[in-house]
Design brief:
51% of the residues lie in helices and 12% in strands. Helix 6 runs parallel beside helix 7. It contains 11 helices and 8 strands.
Length: 251
Amino acid sequence: MKVVWLSRALLITIAALLMLWGFDWWWLLILAMAYMCLMAWFSFHPNTQIFSPCYFRHNSTQVSLTFDDGPHPESTPRLLALLAKHRIKATFFLVGERAAAHPELVRQIADQGHEIGNHSHTHSYVISMFSKDRWLNELADCQQILSAILGNSPKIFRPPYGVSTPNTAYAAAEYSLQQIGWSCHTHDFFGSVARITDCLNQLKEGDIALLHETKTNTVEALTRWLQTDQAKSFVFTTVTDGANLAANHAE
């Protein structure tokens, strides 16, 4: 947050100097547009940690597969069966509304030893523009639903679309949620099976991979990739377990 206030103070200072030097008003417009573009770029890149701390890579040799947007009645069972076959524990960031519609899948995810995180209640297309109060409601509603199903509340959070704003950071802090990013984007939301597989081939030790459990191509690509020697060489873990291991290594 200090960076945000520093950038605002710098913007105001430059604007004042431009006015004193008699520059035309459109210079101020250009300056304001540049500031907004910069803040938007930071918002879509949470790993910069400009607005809030963001854990996005392990300082260890382990790898984490993370799945957003679920649960999904068709693809989630297939994905869980695939992970069980390869004895992989993963992290699922669930949407509150979808969890409420499919509580049995939420319990199945947890019963198989996977980690569950908060991914907002509605996953709205305009969630990045929400106020502090709207963000508080988004996280609170999702926490309440997951807690009612699981008997405990998530400790981690990933904002929809990876967009982190000061309002997002404020709400996450209110509920003591650690924001989780990623170091490997598989581009599976609109990607072909071949494209997703190519991205998975780029995984390295310590990476946190972003995937979406709602996409059929994701399951197909994982089915292929998990049979490769590269995938078999990795030690997979949940995000929190990997973070704890990294912390222990740092001590």
